[in-house]
Design goal:
Bound molecules: pyridoxal-5'-phosphate
Shape: globular
Order of helices and strands: HHEHHEHEHEHEHEEEHHHEHEEEH
Number of strands: 12
CATH superfamily of the largest domain: Type I PLP-dependent aspartate aminotransferase-like (Major domain)
Number of domains: 2
Structural class: alpha/beta
């Protein structure tokens, strides 16, 4: 390689998304005339709710799409704070809310705020791969701790305490998680916050799937980590519950004393979150939008309740029922110990696109695959029938 083409070492350490490769292969099959059931992509199939589109049209018509403050539109920060009070029963000052360009930017900002060279952030394996890469981009070290069904694929306070080292700077928890859909309950979250505080570290909680929590008791609300601690960085998003993936909008609730430094980082990294998206998102919290979104949450729960028992019946191992999000992490060791080859076979022979476990870490990753129930019931039924035929269980 010539000297001008030499790249920073971090580039080689950042893996591509296998899921995108599955999608490309699926599209190629479709172009050749095959039908494919898409269960690979972590993106809701529902369109952005109409009141949000209307708000965007109005914003375009009046032309008010200049830069905003790096922290976001004051009215949106206030609306998010009200949402925490109404939906999660927790009081959060709007001054602690940092609106970001997707939760991806929030995760990058908090990594930039906390991570120095060689600092460690503890996270779960399996887990969302970009988190490792954000930390690596900042010259830190993501330490992914193997977790399994015994801890619902989540880190526990005990595990965190045992693995804390002189280099550990903080812990990242995602609840509900991608790829497992499993959650950390409020009692364990409180214990985790206590352990992290006692070690002088920082807690980051990714709650981007919190709105999509199922099996709540009647009248109960999904519990945010903010109800057990004020000293965490809690990341959320308009992408999933609010069906606004491509609008690139998310937020973080930060301890008050860190907001100014996060603002400084945001100003420099991307100036401000997208204005049109922020003005559209103001309509997310209107009662008529919430009605639409709650119907969709019910639809996701129905799909989960269709998919999980059917997969178990076919021999996939799903020891813990996913409680939220729209993913099922299934053990395929009964069929294969090479998740990539298994996914390729299932795609080519059955026309079902799913994601190999190797996208989410190393721990038993080759014995797992991820299903996304981001398609309608009829398609899920078709996918199950195809898998049953492929696995000789029809
Ligand atoms: C756990 C988790 N965190 C963060 C993100 C980033 O989402 P966005 O930047 O669209 O908010 C995703 C996307 O799939 C995710 O699954």
């Amino acid at each position: 390689m010539t000297e001008p083409d030499r790249l920073a070492a971090r580039v080689a350490d950042i893996a591509p998304f296998q899921v995108m490769e599955v999608q490309t292969a699926a599209r190629a099959l479709e172009a050749a005339g095959r039908t494919v059931v898409h269960m690979e992509i972590g993106e809701p199939d529902f369109p952005t709710p109409e009141p949000v589109l209307e708000a965007a049209r109005a914003a375009l018509a009046d032309g008010g799409v200049y830069y905003t403050s790096a922290l976001g539109l004051p009215a949106l920060r206030e609306a998010i704070a009200r949402h925490y009070a109404e939906r999660h029963g927790v009081e959060v000052s709007p001054s602690r809310i940092v609106v970001t360009a997707g939760s991806s930017a929030a995760l990058l900002l908090v990594s930039a705020l906390l991570v120095d060279r060689d600092d460690e952030i503890l996270m779960s394996d399996p887990g969302y791969p970009c988190n490792r890469h954000f930390v690596r981009t900042l010259e830190g070290r993501a330490r992914a701790l193997p977790v399994g069904p015994d801890s619902a694929y989540q880190l526990s306070a005990d595990l965190i305490d045992r693995h804390w080292s002189a280099r550990t700077r903080g812990v990242l928890i995602a609840t509900p998680s991608n790829p497992t859909g499993t959650t950390v309950g409020p009692d364990e979250m409180r214990r985790i916050a206590e352990v992290v505080a006692s070690r002088g570290g920082r807690l980051i909680v990714d709650e981007i799937y919190l709105g999509l929590t199922y099996d709540l008791a009647p009248g109960a609300r999904p519990v945010s980590a903010l109800s057990v601690t004020d000293d965490a960085f809690v990341v959320s998003s308009f992408s999933k519950y609010f069906n606004m993936t491509g609008w690139r909008l998310g937020w973080m609730v930060a301890p008050e004393r860190h907001v100014r430094d996060l603002e400084k980082l945001a100003q420099n990294l991307y100036i401000s979150p997208p204005t049109l998206s922020q003005r559209a998102a103001l309509a997310c919290f209107r009662p008529e939008t919430i009605v639409i979104l709650e119907e969709r949450r019910e639809a996701f729960r129905d799909r989960r309740d269709l998919l999980v028992p059917a997969l178990r019946g076919l021999g996939f191992g799903i020891p813990v029922m996913p409680q939220g999000g729209f993913f099922v992490y299934a053990d395929v060791s009964r069929f294969s110990r090479k998740s990539r080859a298994f996914c390729r076979e299932v795609l080519e022979h059955a026309g079902v696109a799913i994601t190999p476990g190797v996208d989410f870490g190393r721990h038993r990753a080759d014995e797992h695959v991820r299903f996304a129930y981001t398609v309608a019931r009829a398609k899920i039924e078709d996918g199950i029938a195809r898998l049953a035929r492929h696995l000789g269980r029809a």
